[in-house]
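Hi support team,

I'm filing this because I wasn't sure whether my run with adenine finished correctly. The job status page said complete, but I'd like someone to confirm that the output block is well-formed before I use it downstream. Pasting the exact inputs I used:
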Amino acid sequence: MRIDIVTIFPEFFSVLDVSLLGKARSSGLLDVRAHDLREWTHDRHRTVDDTPYGGGAGMVMRPEPWGEALDQLLTPNAESGLSDAVVIVPSPAGVRFTQVLARELAQERHLVFACGRYEGIDQRVMDSAAQRVRVLEVSLGDYVLNGGEVASLAMIEAIGRLIPGVIGNPASLDEESHEDGLLEYPSYTKPASWRGLDVPPVLLSGNHGAIAAWRREQQLARTRRVRPDLLSD
Ligand code: ADE
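And here is everything the job wrote out:
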């Protein structure tokens, strides 16, 4: 998968050299490139923002550098002549990012993350890109970050680990929280007793049926306790 990131802080993305995604990059499974939006400015001050039409606090990112950046990055596919990229714009005003969306995006060939700062990006950037490709404004949750960089990193990790070959043992993906709509069961390892706390005896029983039933019960109880919204959706 190819991932392009457009940001005024490309240095945020140096962490993608580390750990499993770092390995996926060096093995060629993931081709990730962070670009400085200011490369597509033409004035002496490399201006990317301006005051909002209609008034209000804060600054809005101007459309011109974004337009040029996307023109360059949304390269046409040799067969169709159209770009097959999906543009993802992290925003607290977007649709919720979920494991289902991560799975869907992990099937794509090319993702372009457009990281806004300040009060966001001029809406015409998204509207214009949507005439050519799929554009998704996506929120990590109901809170506000300073910009799209941290949100993009979280999404790239969630998506990247679902690409076949990135995680050594794909079975480890199957029993995680959210994969079956529930939170995952609690996990234990050795020693069987630690600081007066014992591992639940059923896990030492060797009875696979009883272990599976206990884990399912734990998933339901935990989900009911901390995320009842997942059961009612
Ligand atoms: N940018 C600012 N806040 C955000 C959020 N909650 N999710 C995604 N992108 C954001």
